[in-house]
Design brief:
The chain has 9 helices and 10 strands. With 231 residues, it is of the alpha/beta class. It has 2 domains: 133 residues, Roll (CBS-domain), CATH 3.10.580; 71 residues, Fe-S cluster assembly (FSCA) (GMP Synthetase, Chain A, domain 3, 2-Layer Sandwich). The strands form 4 sheets. The chain has a 3-stranded mixed β-sheet. A 3-stranded mixed β-sheet has the order 6-7-8, covered by helices on one side. Strands 4-5 form a two-stranded antiparallel sheet. Pfam families: BON, CBS. Keywords: CBS domain.
């Protein structure tokens, strides 16, 4: 089963600025390219931070708030004095790698409340950017395509289960699976695999099992910790 990765959806032609880029050039780059933020890199392309519109705003706010602003908003006050991208940027940058699953990237974007993630290779060099808009594309798979992958990749190929013995429906990305599997443990495995299919929004499991294999586990006789499964 294919897992959609960041390298499948990321933008490779990335607008960047260098650490020494002056304030006005940073601002004009954001405006001219109609982006709200961009990576800050070293001369060799290593990502050291991200600069966004919000990083530039304190520069304007300082003149309005004066000394009180310096005392109550020290981070903003420091950025208000900034003259280069390095002084403006938010660091360290939150990054992902090309082989990061898109679902994981989407979770990071949501948890951090940010709009984009620089994509770096094993050396920390910039290779692309993945945005919220990029990851939303994973939910545009049709219900028919989702159903086909679940039937053939999850159950037939992944679990050696004939999908014809199950009742699988997909409506607006929500998958409902009814039917019986041989082992209780297989239900959890199936649910996890179905959730990993590109385009799946949620899974409603109504599967039952013929045999309860939960007791077939080897447990350490000393501390009672499960060591491995028998199957």
């Amino acid at each position: 089963m294919r897992t959609l990765k960041v390298q499948d959806v990321m933008t490779r032609d990335v607008i960047t600025v260098h650490e020494a880029t002056p304030f006005k050039e940073v601002a004009s780059t954001l405006v001219n390219h109609r982006v709200s933020g961009m990576p800050v890199t070293t001369p060799i392309g290593m990502v050291v931070g991200v600069v966004s519109e919000s990083d530039l705003l304190p520069n304007e706010s300082r003149s309005e708030h004066g000394r009180l602003y310096d005392v109550t908003h020290r981070t903003e006050a420091r950025k208000a004095e900034a003259r280069t991208a390095r002084q403006l940027m938010t660091a360290p940058a939150v990054t992902v790698t090309p082989d990061t699953p898109v679902r994981q990237a989407a979770a990071i974007l949501a948890r951090r409340g940010i709009n984009r993630l620089p994509v770096v290779d094993e050396l920390g060099l910039l290779v692309g950017v993945v945005s919220r808009r990029d990851v939303l594309g994973m939910f545009l798979q049709s219900d028919e395509d989702i159903l086909d992958e679940i039937q053939h990749e999850v159950f037939l190929r992944g679990m050696s289960v004939d999908p014809a013995q199950l009742d699988i429906t997909v409506t607006d990305g929500v998958v409902t699976v009814r039917g019986q599997l041989e082992l209780r443990s297989s239900i959890e495995i199936a649910e996890e695999l179905v959730r990993g299919v590109v385009g799946v929004v949620d899974v409603v499991s109504q599967m039952t099992y013929a045999h309860d294999d939960q007791h077939l586990r080897v447990v350490d006789s000393v501390n009672g910790v499960q060591m491995r499964d028998l199957w």
